[in-house]
């Protein structure tokens, strides 16, 4: 009796979760609603959203960034906010009555607090829609050409935001 060679079992890799357009729209809308709520309530100012665009690479030109992870059964990912010094100064003047001219511990702390508020309000909005997220502690990055390393390999979407003539950016990366 001739023995046939056994076929090797292929290594099965878990496929990453597929993008869910409806879920992604819920997350994006929750972040946009969160931004409007925070800026109108706490800063008495309006923000204008640009169109979300895919972001290539990880590099940020300048300023300070805060990245916060958000995980749920249905999705996992992260949200980042990047504040160039002029936008950060405007926010600090309105919120704290203090100027920020350079990126230091106070600037990083303010960006971290804004990311907590942004993710926290978005988390509440998403919870009301049936998506219950856990949040992580913000990671801070700063300096010219710093990089934002999102927690997953999904496509990062960049959302430009304008406030009183100053621009800052929100990044979303969910799988």
Architecture overview:
- The protein has 175 residues and is of the alpha+beta class.
- It has a single domain, classed as Chemotaxis protein chec, CATH 3.40.1550.
- The protein has 3 helices and 8 strands.
- Strands 1, 2, 3, 4, 5, 6, 7 and 8 form an 8-stranded antiparallel beta sheet that branches.
- A hairpin with a 4-residue loop joins strand 3 (64-71) and strand 4.
- The longest helix has 24 residues, at 105-128.
- The chain is globular.
- The protein starts with 20 loop residues before the first helix and ends with a strand.
- The model is unreliable at 3-18 (pLDDT under 50).
- Report the strand count: 8
Radius of gyration in whole Å, from Cα?
Answer: 20 Å
Structural class category: alpha+beta
Strand content: 15-25%
The gross shape turns out to be: globular
What is the terminal-to-terminal distance? Answer: 51 Å
Q: Tell me the CATH topology.
A: Chemotaxis protein chec
Q: Give the count of helical stretches.
A: 3
Q: Which sequence of SSEs, written as H and E, runs from N to C?
A: HEEEEHHEEEE
Question: Which CATH class?
Answer: Alpha Beta
Taking the sheet with the most strands, its summary is: 8 strands, antiparallel
Going by CATH, the homologous superfamily would be CheC-like
Q: Segments where pLDDT lies below 50 for 5+ residues? A: 3-18
Helix proportion = 25-40%
What's the structural domain tally?
Answer: 1
CATH architecture: 3-Layer(aba) Sandwich
pLDDT averaged residue by residue: 86
């Amino acid at each position: 009796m001739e023995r046939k060679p056994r076929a090797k079992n292929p290594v099965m890799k878990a496929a990453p979760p597929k993008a869910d357009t409806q879920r992604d729209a819920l997350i994006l809308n929750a972040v946009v609603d969160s931004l409007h709520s925070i800026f109108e309530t706490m800063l008495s100012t309006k923000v204008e959203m640009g169109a979300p665009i895919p972001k290539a690479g990880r590099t940020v030109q300048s300023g300070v960034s805060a990245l916060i992870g958000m995980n749920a059964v249905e999705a996992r990912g992260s949200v980042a906010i990047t504040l160039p010094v002029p936008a950060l100064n405007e926010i600090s003047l309105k919120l704290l009555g203090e100027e920020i001219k350079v990126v230091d511990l106070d600037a990083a702390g303010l960006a971290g607090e804004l990311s907590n508020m942004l993710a926290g309000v978005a988390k509440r909005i998403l919870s009301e829609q049936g998506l219950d997220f856990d949040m992580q502690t913000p990671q801070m990055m700063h300096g010219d050409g710093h990089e934002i390393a999102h927690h997953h390999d999904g496509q990062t979407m960049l959302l430009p935001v304008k406030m009183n003539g100053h621009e800052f950016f929100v990044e979303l990366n969910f799988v």
